[in-house]
Amino acid sequence: MSKHKPTAHYEGKGEFFDTHAHLYDRRYAEDGRSPEDILLAAKAAGVSKILVPADSVVTSRAAAGFSDSFDGKFGVDVYYSVGVHPHEAKDYDSEAEEYLKDLLGSSRPSRLRAIGEIGLDYYYDFSPRDCQREVFARQLDIAYEADIPLILHERDAAQDTLDILKAQYKKGALRNNPGVCHCCGMSVEVASELIKMGFYIGFDGPLTFKNNVKGVKLAQSVPLDRIVIETDSPYLTPEPNRGRRNEPEFVPYVALRLAEILEMSIEEVAKITFDNGIRLYEL
Ligand SMILES: [Zn+2]
């Protein structure tokens, strides 16, 4: 991974909300990038809000710790989520469930804004599929009981994801604002079913990659009031910075690509996606 270089700045283009960035990732420390470096660079690029998502009990604690330590400190509001990713579903036990229920209970910290990442991943299959489905369903119930939106991770499992969400919807256990399909790789057809249930659709670096026809089609199909932008840092660095470690300061590149696709200005995309992020996480 090449050394970090400052990026083109989008200061003055508006305020950006990176709705998904794993800022506790140890790769940053290995690169010599401190939270201060990352947040100041984000701020300079116009990013004023970031949500730090978790994928296990360990990273739930890390996300909470990051938010506790750095929220507001460098001019960026830092929110977080807790939850168990499908990769880690095999390690989901009663202790993990109690931990989540406890945190999301009546004394929930104010910066804890979602449960996630939760969902299904049949691409890597790091946990058995039946186990993934069960852990996903259990956390959907927790989200509903706790009255909090969810961050959905889905890869190569669109039909099962849709079936489980529809069952949840039918039994009346999905909120009006159910959450976001993060880094959404779904077809227009499946995504539209999620949008009908109230979901937001998250776009990331891959939208900036050449030949991402599927992503472009999806972006064109999503109602403007349902689009959010994210980096998924430290992964999925957008063009023109591919090959570098991803950081929230690069989220304007996702907005820029959306602006091209939707034939709007980056200022308009910044404003729309910022407001959507506020509604998604109910800030
Ligand atoms: Zn993620």
Name some characteristics of this structure.
8 strands; TIM Barrel; 283 residues; alpha/beta; binds zinc ion; globular
Characterization of the model:
With 283 residues, this protein is an alpha/beta fold. The protein has one domain (16-280): Metal-dependent hydrolases (TIM Barrel). It has helices spanning 26-31, 35-44, 57-70, 94-103, 129-146, 158-170, 188-196, 213-221, 251-262, 266-280; strands spanning 16-18, 47-52, 77-82, 112-121, 150-155, 179-181, 200-203, 227-229. Strands 1-2-3-4-5-6-7-8 form an eight-stranded parallel beta sheet. β6 (179-181), α7 and β7 (200-203) form a beta-alpha-beta unit. α5 runs parallel beside α6 and α9 (251-262) crosses α10. The termini are far apart. The model has no long low-confidence stretch (mean pLDDT 95). The structure holds zinc ion.
CATH architecture tag? Alpha-Beta Barrel
Taken together, the total number of domains comes to: 1
Q: End-to-end distance, in Å?
A: 35 Å
Helix content: 40-55%
Beta-strand content:
5-15%
- Which ranges are low-confidence, i.e. pLDDT below 50, for 5 or more consecutive residues? none
Bound molecules: zinc ion
Task: Work out the number of β strands.
Answer: 8
**Looking at CATH, which topology would you report?**
TIM Barrel
Shape: globular
| CATH homologous superfamily grouping | Metal-dependent hydrolases
- Main pleated sheet: 8 strands, parallel
Secondary-structure element string: EHHEHEHEHEHEHEHEHH
| Class derived from helix and strand content | alpha/beta
The CATH first-level class comes to Alpha Beta
